[in-house]
Write a structure and sequence with these properties.
Strand order of the largest sheet: 5-6-7-8
Radius of gyration: 37 Å
Strand content: 35-45%
Largest sheet: 4 strands, antiparallel
């Protein structure tokens, strides 16, 4: 006698991980007489106990295998619009894979930009980064919660797949500015942040409250203080300061209401003003600084790195601009208790009025309150006043 066939049961369609073994329960084994099970299959009678146990063992194996979880994508992929996975080219034997949760978060926020209420976002808002070798093994992960790496690796694209050719800086925070071409990315552990490069090397340790990308540098914040971190061939880290101010070409580090250092994005130069009594901006739109040494003020241009006005003035303050073909920015200066005006344009300072007047005021219009006549000022000297048109 032999076992011709054995039907192990039917899959439960509603739950593919569950096998219905009730088909085996009504079997009646009567010697030398075939019988039918409740599922309508004819079984030969001469079934040994060992063969039956073997069949049950096969069933249990299939059930156990079916109950293994399927390969997992990072949580949220494919469930929320705007979320993508970027595969960058291999570099030094490693490929960076970026799960762009941030775009999904921004997509969610954009839907309610004109509404008064934004419902909570159910997914992650920070990107996840994986690094795999040429064998397809995940060797580094950052900002990952709990996904099993083995299942994740089996679900990714083949190792020769690339859909993003160039690395860019992470867009975290609303202070995104382009950084170095090979890209730097914020990583998170609990409530602290750090930065990795596009090879998964930790270049800024995870010890700051948050990190902002700036051109060729980073602002790192900790305990309500900030410092500047410069990477590259000549890495450097400044002391902590109270605050900072950014302009198109520079970032100024401020402590006790005075600029202590200025970093030049393009050339990666750091100008230190530790020997100055005080340093301040003349105007928000002007890329020149007023510096006080030995009780006197001068004007220095960090673009040309030239001293535009010597240290001989008691007071320097921005007062407005004139527009003809180009802007002339006007600066009040005071010297030996007398007032004058200098202009700044194209990194050059020119004297408009020498420091020989007791008072200088702009002339208000008669028709519009708080408006001034274009180009007109009123000066007083030795008790006499006169009006001067600076556009003449």
């Amino acid at each position: 006698m032999r076992l011709d066939h054995l039907i192990l049961g039917q899959k439960n369609v509603s739950n593919p991980c569950f096998f219905d073994i009730s088909a085996f329960l009504p079997l009646t084994l009567t010697p030398n007489h075939p019988t039918k099970s409740s599922i309508g299959s004819t079984l030969p009678i001469d079934i040994t106990m060992n063969k039956l146990l073997l069949g049950l063992l096969m069933l249990m194996t299939q059930v156990a295998t079916a109950q293994l979880p399927p390969p997992l994508l990072p949580n949220g992929i494919g469930e929320k619009p705007g979320i993508s996975v970027f595969y960058y080219p291999f570099r030094n034997g490693l490929q960076m894979i970026e799960v762009d949760y941030r775009s999904g978060y921004e997509f969610h926020m954009a839907q309610y930009v004109d509404k008064g209420y934004v419902p909570p976002y159910g997914g992650k808002s920070i990107n996840t980064y994986y690094f795999r070798n040429t064998q397809g093994e995940i060797v580094k992960t950052f900002n990952q919660d709990s996904t099993d790496i083995r299942y994740l690796a089996s679900n990714l694209e083949p190792v020769d797949f690339v859909n993003k050719k160039y690395h860019i800086s992470d867009r975290w925070n609303h202070y995104y500015e382009q950084g170095q071409s090979d890209g730097y990315y914020n990583i998170y552990e609990r409530e602290q942040q750090g930065v990795i490069d596009s090879l998964g090397n930790v270049v800024i340790p995870v010890e700051y409250d948050y990190v902002i990308h700036k051109p060729n540098c980073f602002l790192a914040f900790k305990d309500k203080k900030n410092r500047l971190i410069v990477l590259g061939e000549k890495p450097s880290t400044t002391d902590f300061y109270d605050s900072y101010y950014t302009q198109k070409l520079f970032i100024h580090l401020i402590d006790k209401r005075s600029i202590k250092a200025t970093y030049k994005y393009e050339t990666r130069e750091m100008f230190n003003f530790s020997n100055a009594e005080s340093v301040d901006l003349i105007g928000e739109d002007l890329s020149i600084l007023k510096i006080k040494r030995k009780g006197k003020w001068g004007i220095w241009d960090p673009v040309t790195e030239q001293l535009l006005l010597r240290y001989e003035y008691d007071h320097i303050n921005y007062c407005g601009y004139l527009y003809q073909k180009e802007y002339d920015y006007l600066i009040f200066v005071k010297k030996n208790e007398k007032y004058g005006i200098v202009s700044w344009q194209n990194h050059i300072c020119k004297t408009i009025l020498p420091c020989e007047y007791d008072k200088i005021n702009f002339i208000k219009t008669d028709s519009i309150p708080y408006q001034y006549k274009k180009g007109w000022i009123r000066v007083e000297k030795n008790g006499r006043t006169k009006d001067i048109n600076l556009l003449d």
